[in-house]
Amino acid sequence: MAIHTNAKSRLFIGAANNTISTIDQYEAETWLEIKEVEDIGEFGVEGSEQTFISLADGYVRKLKGSLNSGALEVVVGRDPSDEGQNRARAAAGDWFKYPFKVELNDRPTPTGENTVYYFRAPVMSAKSNYGNADNIVRTTFALSIDGEILEIPAAPTVTMSPAAGMLTAGTEGEEYTASVTASGGIGTVSYAVTAGDLPDGLSLNETTGEISGTPPTAGTSNFTITATYTGSGTASAEYSITVSA
Q: What pLDDT digit, counting tens, does each position of 203-238 carry?
């Protein structure tokens, strides 16, 4: 993975929801992008410091207490026609919490996925700076994060070929060969059967993804092959092989 700038990062707001908390709930949300964002600010978890002074040695003992995900100030170029900005402005006038999504521009490969953060927060304020005649009007939204920040890290998109399904059929007592290949990850790939079993007599080459051998009996076998890259990236697919008599 490489370092990156914040250019092309994006911010989204969902509908008012005081209880949203899980990845699947956030992913099911219908999002409005807050456009013309100039500065997303900073956010992240911080533990409170709790202290105790022992009379015996006079030293301060320090413990980590409650966790606080913090607050962020989002600066946008004010656009009264932008739906996302308008929802955030309206949110500053009520007492509900709203789901937010921050998507960075840090995908590790051209076809990969960016880092995504999810959290809920009340919009504490929406203040606009109008200034003089040459000032670009900006609005600052203050978001006070409630609870945990959920992160889906950036990752390459790994594809399996074939994607899934029946592999080439085999014949009892005859030599068999088929291959499964993965692409899109970072580093060196290795293959493994992670569920089910290959037909008797067949084995998987963990380096090349080739399935080979001589099946001694007829039947159908179902199994899952997982490809894992040493740098980053993994994918799995379900396959079947039918061996006829």
A: 999 999 999 999 999 999 999 999 999 999 999 999
The percent helix, strand, coil of the chain (3-state, each to 5) is 5, 50, 45
Please state the pTM of the whole predicted model: 0.84
Question: Half-sphere exposure of 103 toward its Cβ, with a 13 Å CA cutoff?
Answer: 15
User: Considering the domain boundaries, does residue 5 fall inside one?
Assistant: no
Q: Which domain holds residue 56?
A: 10-152
Contact 242, 198 (CB under 8 A): no
Q: Which amino acid is at 235?
A: A
Q: Which H or E element spans position 144?
A: strand 138-144
Task: Let me know whether 147 and 165 are in one domain.
Answer: no
Q: Is 120 exposed, middle or buried (0-12, 13-18, 19+ CB in 10 A)?
A: buried
**Residue 190: CATH number of its domain:** 2.60.40.10
Instruction: Give percent of the chain with pLDDT exceeding 90.
Output: 96
Nearest-5° Cα angle at 50, 49 to 55: 135
